[in-house]
Specification:
- This protein has helices at about 15-25, 35-40, 50-55, 65-75, 100-110, 125-130, 140-155, 165-195, 200-205, 215-225, 235-250, 255-275, 280-285, and strands spanning about 5-10, 25-30, 45, 60, 90, 115, 120, 135, 155-160.
- It is of the alpha/beta class.
- The protein folds into 2 domains: about 5-160, NAD(P)-binding Rossmann-like Domain (Rossmann fold, 3-Layer(aba) Sandwich); about 165-285, N-(1-d-carboxylethyl)-l-norvaline Dehydrogenase, domain 2 (Orthogonal Bundle).
- The strands form 2 sheets. The protein has a 6-stranded parallel sheet with strand order 3-2-1-4-5-6, sandwiched between helices. A 3-stranded mixed sheet has the order 7-8-9.
- The protein is globular and about 65 Å long.
- The protein starts with a strand and ends in a 6-residue tail after the last helix.
């Protein structure tokens, strides 16, 4: 009999995660507010509500944009916990403030469940290739119980220890992501101002010591100004940068670069680029006085 796993949030990350699980033989029950036809086409089992997911599955994965959304689907009136099944485990993949994650853990425990802090790091293409990294943390017994589901989603699920360590590791990873994206935008703006052909810059720099994954992915998007299809929306990445900057402030870490990155991404959102891929921050950098 196939093991049932629920997955709430079938977007650019959640849908390929669902396919990975289905390919590994799991019965995946999924929910999103919008159309679920694509999910059904890959063998998923659409649910009418998160509560229905809870009725069908004792292991539930949440992959959602913010704390409010996670709260609603886990402990809201029609949330997973409303199914009243003791012993359920939530694998929470989102990047949220630690205070929000801790509160969700407490509320889940009051409903008879366990919430694991398991942020995911990786592009949609990495999820499809099973190379996205899940930073798992929380109750070790619950982790061992859901480990087959984690291994069903990716080949790189890593247990890091007590609850919250996963989020701290994700903050470190996303700080670098943000810095690398902004650095890529600045490098291309400098190249353009210097009269270098951007396609040549990308070809030469991509295999060089100055490269990064974000340069390799975002530089072509920036050069083509083709950011309407969002791998990661600017508004979502700004949310992450705000969380990380706040965390750095809370623990007394100066972290000057993350504050600069946050401010540039905020400018991009103010320019109406929130729904666009984060590569659109190039528009802000390239318009800076003296840059071109």
């Amino acid at each position: 009999m196939e093991e049932a796993v629920g997955l709430i949030g079938l977007g650019a990350i959640g849908l390929p995660l669902a396919k990975n699980l289905i390919d590994k033989g799991f019965a995946v029950h999924g929910y999103r507010r919008s159309d679920m036809a694509e999910f059904a086409e890959i063998g998923g089992r659409p649910a009418a509500s998160p509560r229905e997911i809870g009725e069908q599955c004792k292991i539930v994965v949440t992959c959602l944009p913010d704390a409010k959304a996670v709260h609603e689907v886990v402990v809201g009136p029609q949330g997973v916990a409303a199914a009243q099944r003791n012993g359920f485990v939530i694998i929470e993949l989102s990047t949220l403030a630690l205070s929000d994650k801790n509160r969700l853990r407490e509320l889940t425990a009051l409903e008879g469940g366990t919430l694991l802090d398991c942020p995911l790091s990786g592009l949609p293409s990495m999820v499809k290739q099973r190379t996205a990294v899940i930073f798992a943390s929380g109750d070790q017994q619950a982790y061992e119980r859901v480990r087959p589901a984690l291994d069903g989603m990716t080949d790189k699920a890593i247990y890091l220890g007590e609850f919250g360590v996963g989020s701290k590791m994700k903050f470190t990873a996303n700080l670098l992501v943000g810095v690398h994206i902004l650095a890529t935008a600045e490098a291309l703006a400098l190249s353009a101002k210097a009269g270098l052909p951007l396609d040549q810059v990308i070809k030469v720099i991509s295999p060089s010591g100055g490269t990064s994954l974000q340069f390799q992915v975002r530089a072509p998007i920036m050069a083509a100004r083709n950011w309407d299809t969002a791998l990661a929306a600017t508004s979502m990445v700004l949310k992450d940068m705000e969380i990380i900057a706040g965390f750095a402030d809370d623990i007394g870490c100066p972290a000057p670069l993350i504050h600069i990155v946050r401010d540039y991404f905020a400018q991009a959102v103010e320019h109406g680029l929130g729904p666009k891929d984060i590569a659109a921050v190039y528009e802000v950098v390239a318009r800076e006085p003296g840059v071109g």
